[in-house]
Amino acid sequence: MISREKRHNEVWFTEESTKHLRLSLRVTGELVRKETPYQSLLALETAEYGRMLVLDGAIQVTEKDEFCYHEMMAHVPLCSHPNPKKVLIVGGGDGGSLREAVKHESVEKAVLVDIDEEVIKTSREFFPTLSCAMDDPKAEIRPMDAMVYMKDHRGEFDVIIVDATDPVDMAAGLFQSPFYRDVWDALSDDGFMVTHIESPFTDAAIMVPAYRAMKEVFPSVHPYLGFMPTYPSGMWVYAIGSKRHDPSKPLREAPKGLKYYTSDVHRASFALPPFLVDMLENGEGVESHY
């Protein structure tokens, strides 16, 4: 929602995170606004966080803090896999996860599959710091349905990064066990999948079922924590489904020049506070805020 504050003649964007919680950023310019075949797309200039991409009213990325999310999505699985060569990114049309994946020397191919080509085009035009790897020789961009793509690529990928939007409308299925089974089938015998499962403070009613759905498919599921200032509550939970290996221990150093991820951060992110363990394992404190 975009509104104008009369007293200061300022324009503000407000995300309604829940019915009780909103996040507002002052807008200094509008880059693009369009209805795609799949969702409402908005790109804005903000005073505090630089350029920002919004889909269906929810903040997806900002230039200032996106590295916190993308580095934890990509480097945790890639640094703990013995030899990741092929990576699939489901969603992630802004290009941030792809940018991080191709930094790994072992990665020979990284495929980005996003159903909404307009997100890819907007990122190329207005978010060059995120989309900068889309023309990398290792990268392959596929604007199509990831479910269809995975069914044609069984057992092919060492790491699958599910960089989905919030689990509503067309993305709801990306947080359910039938989708995780498709991911399982597309992974190699020692593969990892990683996804975000939202915030324990605002999205526990989404987080816990998603975690349990992963456990229905993968023999080992490891949740871990990161910080994302412009996502609801700022505390963000990720989860890795593993066929064989323990992702909590990095096996190699990360690429140079990162701003959030280190091997120490990797190990520490798997140390969960008791309230979160209780919530994930026992459903303690879970209620919907929507």
From TrEMBL:
UniProt-listed Enzyme Commission number(s): 2.5.1.16
UniProtKB keywords: Polyamine biosynthesis, Spermidine biosynthesis, Transferase
Gene Ontology molecular functions: spermidine synthase activity
Domain PABS: residue ranges: 10-243
Active site: residue positions: 163 (proton acceptor)
GO cellular component: cytosol
Catalytic activity: S-adenosyl 3-(methylsulfanyl)propylamine + putrescine = S-methyl-5'-thioadenosine + spermidine + H(+)
CDD domains according to UniProt: AdoMet_MTases (cd02440)
Pathway field: Amine and polyamine biosynthesis; spermidine biosynthesis; spermidine from putrescine: step 1/1
A GO BP entry: spermidine biosynthetic process
Binding-site residues for S-methyl-5'-thioadenosine, renumbered to this chain: 39, 114, 145-146
Taxonomic superkingdom: Bacteria
Residue sites binding spermidine per the record: 70, 94
Purpose of the protein: Catalyzes the irreversible transfer of a propylamine group from the amino donor S-adenosylmethioninamine (decarboxy-AdoMet) to putrescine (1,4-diaminobutane) to yield spermidine.
PANTHER family linked: SPERMIDINE SYNTHASE (PTHR11558:SF11), SPERMIDINE/SPERMINE SYNTHASE (PTHR11558)
The protein's assembly and partners: Homodimer or homotetramer.
Family named by the database record: Belongs to the spermidine/spermine synthase family.
Protein name per Swiss-Prot or TrEMBL: Polyamine aminopropyltransferase
Record gene name: speE
